[in-house]
Specification:
It is a single chain. This protein has a 5-stranded parallel β-sheet with strand order 2-3-4-1-5, sandwiched between helices. Helix content is 63%, strand content 4%.
């Protein structure tokens, strides 16, 4: 007999409603994803959720679609059924309705008789038990598990507001189970569209999207709204939040509160909706007594969900958003002063515990700006890292007059603006400290005040002020924090990690990876006492990026692994997500693993965090992908756009300028645009090793091997060089040495560099002109493997050697030949019958086109390119 037949039989018996499949509401959206989960052959399925989330409707919908050969029994437990004996009586009655056992039999309540009857039943059998949360007898759980283990043709579906110990008991007895909880039961956007479509409602897409967001996909509320709107002549005339509020309030009043009676008549339930976070300790503070009875009751009705157990004595809970909102609104409407008072007390309590985000939220709920101001001034570090939205709400409520009285609040407000925003649009004076005020930082007798005010000034300087001044301040703060790390770490613990972290970011933004590594390691050591939940993950990401920039791929991978481990324990997005993605992309590029590069870059795009001070590293990682495999012209356009948008972050001589200039030169050389690369470098006044590397590569590809050797050889031992740049300089030097004919020296250098390939690093070899790499492989056979790896990775001929065409005007040609004779500028001017300034102007133009800075370099470069006649060049040499 199928489920439909069971319903018909049950309708003829006294009290048979308990053994009947509930009537399905009409209309009804089909929920294919959950029906397929119920179709599985797993013995026990627990459908768990609070009232109104559609547990019974889902299972009844599934039963209605079962094949005829599958029989089903349904039982809804009454309030007085709470023991194993009573459970088997009810199951026996349901099986009697189905025909599995004989109705009226004396053995109908015997578990053994039920087991024998199920064994004798030839067809597959499904038993549905609704309201199983009423069973608290451990024997019942053991009996159910044993029955499922002994009856392979039986499946049990349990609808419950809280499954208690049933699944744990089944697991211990080796019975497999699955759960469909409230997160599965809420409607998806597509299911919401289908439900309203079944009501015959043609929905504006944005209206329906907003409706789904406001209701959280709660089935009972959405069905009630759809049913009400279907009977309105103009259903879209009212605001969505008003429609939702009306139906939620009615649902809570008619469905939720009666289910909680008599507990619902007390103030306790309503008071528990006020805290932004709820655990046992907070509940005890709110209620003022042992809260276990109230909490257990709410959980038994599915209205509170236990989300974690940090210790055996403390549990954390969450309300369904709509239920909490409706109950709190009702509480606030009846006793507004009580809610306001409780919010204020909770704000003070969280503030004393250093939980500044929750303290600020409750202060704002209490409409107490003085409490809120205190939370922002003392917890601004955590607030900036964790929750900008609550900061925005605070600043919206502050008047310009109130803000003008606090430089600290103005500085925090400016830092809360995303870096890509327009800080200048904010009203009020800029809060960056002046030179005199900066000098005072660090002279305070209280290191807490010095570190707090200094860190705020450091962040402001980095965003709006002078980077050099910021580095000077960072050194002072690091010195104070280092001294306090050993002596006053307990009192200053919450400040040490952010000071070290921000100083490390500043060093990394300046390309000083060695100092950044030391400073960030101190940040990592002090991260466990930081109030920012993601501190350890964020610092791990920064150390991973530092190692990737340094070229230490193995160490970068180790820090990125620590980052992933730390992130797995968090339920908030980390600040370091972009840095971790950039680091992963750089490491993968070194290993020529493009799939991993693209995956990491995509992860960076998905980050909700705005790019920070290290934005150019992410862009550089994208540039490496374009250079090795991708759209080089498109990347050049992107670099041009970024330069125009971020001029304030690309100061002349800055490390960011050097990074992007080096990338742009490589892209231009890969497109055989050496003249454009030379013109770009001529406009950059920087002594950064990355710029020297770009100049050396340019010289190598245009055949100026002596200049390439000079530039690469002079900088490869520079203390400011990272291992990554030093490796590129050494390879460029070896390639230039080979091109100049010194095979023995080149082979010796390349043999030492083969350790890179042995460690899985191949990118540097891709930036050697392919004809030189092939020639080197003939002299050094182990290099053949590198050539094959490049080919297998799809990297072919990134930088080709090329003839650079330099076009000089007739007068520039005359000046070039004149300066090659070692004559003075005055002599040249007299012989040409022009002024000295004219000759100087033409000489500067000549130097710019040749990409040189002196007369000797101009003569040498022009001779190589064939621009200078041999006789003039030899005269100069003589």
């Amino acid at each position: 007999m199928d489920a439909t037949g069971s319903s018909q039989v049950a309708a003829t018996r006294p009290g048979a409603y308990r053994y009947a499949v509930p009537r399905l509401p009409r209309p009804l959206a089909r929920r294919q994803r959950l029906l397929e989960q119920l179709d599985s052959s797993i013995p026990l399925t627990v459908v768990r959720g609070p009232v109104g989330v559609g547990k019974s409707t889902l299972v009844a919908q599934w039963l209605a679609g079962l094949p005829q050969e599958i029989d089903a029994a349904w039982v809804t437990l009454d309030e007085d059924i709470d023991s194993a004996v009573r459970l088997w009586e009810e199951i026996g009655q349901a099986l009697g309705v189905t025909g599995v056992v004989s109705p009226g039999s004396d053995l109908i309540a015997s578990r053994r008789a039920i087991r024998h009857a199920i064994h004798r039943w030839s067809a597959p059998l499904v038993i549905v038990v609704e309201a199983y949360e009423r069973i608290h007898d451990p024997r019942a759980h053991r009996d159910v598990a044993e029955l499922l283990r002994q009856c392979p043709n039986l499946r049990l579906v349990v609808c419950t507001r809280a499954d208690g110990r049933l699944r744990d008991t089944c697991r211990r007895q080796g019975v497999e189970s699955t759960v469909i909880d409230v997160r599965d039961l809420v409607l998806t956007p597509d299911e919401t569209y289908a439900l309203f479509g079944s009501f015959g409602l043609e929905l504006p897409p944005q209206w329906l999207t907003d409706l789904h967001r406001e209701t959280g996909g709660w089935p009972a509320i959405l069905w009630a709204i759809g049913n009400a709107l279907a009977h309105e002549s103009c259903p879209w005339s009212r605001p969505i939040d008003q429609v939702v509020r009306e139906h939620v309030d009615g649902w809570v009043r008619n469905e939720v509160l009666p289910a909680l009676s008599p507990l619902a008549t007390s103030e306790w339930v309503f008071r528990l909706t006020v805290p932004e976070r709820l655990d046992d300790e907070i509940a005890r503070r709110v209620i003022g007594d042992d809260p276990r009875t109230v909490l257990d009751c709410l959980m038994s009705h599915g209205l509170l969900v236990q989300v974690s157990t940090t210790t055996s004595e403390s549990r954390t809970y969450v309300w369904p958003r709509l239920v909490r909102s409706a109950l709190r609104s009702s509480f606030a409407a009846e006793v507004p002063r009580a809610v306001q008072k409780l919010d204020g007390e909770l704000s003070d309590w969280f503030h004393a515990r250093g939980e500044h985000v929750l303290a600020l939220r409750h202060a704002l709920s209490a409409d107490d700006l003085e409490r809120a101001r205190l939370s922002v001034e003392q917890g601004w570090i955590t607030l900036l890292a964790v929750d900008h939205s609550v900061l925005d709400e605070f600043f919206r409520r502050m008047t310009p007059e109130e803000l003008s009285r606090s430089r600290k609040l103005r500085a925090v407000r400016e830092l809360a603006v995303p870096p890509d925003g327009d800080p200048s649009a904010r009203p009020g004076p800029r809060a960056v400290l002046g030179r005199t005020e900066l000098e005072l930082i660090g002279r305070s007798t209280d290191p807490r005040v010095a570190l707090d005010e200094g860190l705020l000034a450091l962040l402001s300087l980095r965003r709006f002020g002078d980077p050099g001044q910021a580095r000077e301040l960072a050194a002072r703060l690091t010195s104070i924090a280092s001294a306090a790390r050993g002596t006053r770490s307990e009192q200053l613990g919450e400040l040490l990690c952010p000071v070290f972290k921000e100083a490390g970011v500043l060093h990394l933004a300046a390309g000083d990876t060695h100092t950044a590594t030391d400073t960030l390691r101190w940040a990592y050591e002090t991260a466990p006492v930081s109030p920012v939940p993601s501190a350890q993950a964020d610092v791990s990401a920064l150390l991973g990026l530092t190692m990737a920039v340094e070229g230490e791929t193995a160490r970068a991978e180790a820090w990125l692994t620590r980052y992933e481990t730390a992130v797995a324990d968090l339920d908030v997005e980390t600040i370091g997500g972009r840095e971790a993605a950039a680091a992963t992309a750089l490491v993968a590029a070194e290993q020529l693993d493009r799939g991993r590069v693209l995956e990491a870059l995509e992860r960076g795009i998905r980050s909700c965090r705005a790019p920070g001070a290290l934005w150019f590293y992410e862009l550089y990682a994208r540039g490496q992908d374009a250079l090795l495999w991708g759209d080089r012209i498109g990347m050049l356009h992107r670099l041009s756009e970024v330069r125009s948008r971020r001029e304030h972050g690309l100061a002349p001589g800055s490390f960011a300028e050097a990074v992007l200039a080096g990338l742009e030169v490589d892209l231009l050389l890969s497109l055989r645009s050496a003249p454009r690369a030379r013109a770009l470098l001529a406009g950059i006044e920087s002594d950064q090793p990355l710029v020297a590397l770009a100049r050396a590569r340019l010289a190598l590809v245009v055949g100026d091997h002596r200049t390439a050797q000079r530039l690469a050889g002079a900088r490869r031992w520079d203390e400011r060089c990272s291992s990554r740049v030093r490796t590129d300089l050494k390879l460029t030097y070896a390639a230039a040495t080979l091109a100049s004919g010194d095979e023995a020296t080149a082979v010796a250098d390349l043999e030492r560099l083969l350790t890179l390939a042995e460690a899985g690093t191949y990118r540097p070899f891709a930036l050697v002109p392919p004809d030189l790499l092939m020639a080197a492989a003939e002299l050094l056979p182990p290099l053949e493997k590198v050539v094959h790896v490049l080919e297998d990775a799809g990297v072919r001929g990134v930088l080709h050697r090329q003839d650079e065409m330099v076009e000089l005007t007739p007068r520039e040609q005359v000046v070039l030949e004149a300066i090659a004779t070692s004559r003075t500028i005055e002599d040249i001017a007299r012989s040409l019958h022009v002024s000295v300034n004219t000759v100087k102007s033409q000489t500067r133009s000549l130097y710019r086109k040749l990409g040189v800075r002196s007369r000797d370099e101009a003569v040498h470069s022009a001779s190589i390119r064939g621009v200078l006649p041999p006789r003039a060049g030899s005269e100069a040499s003589g």
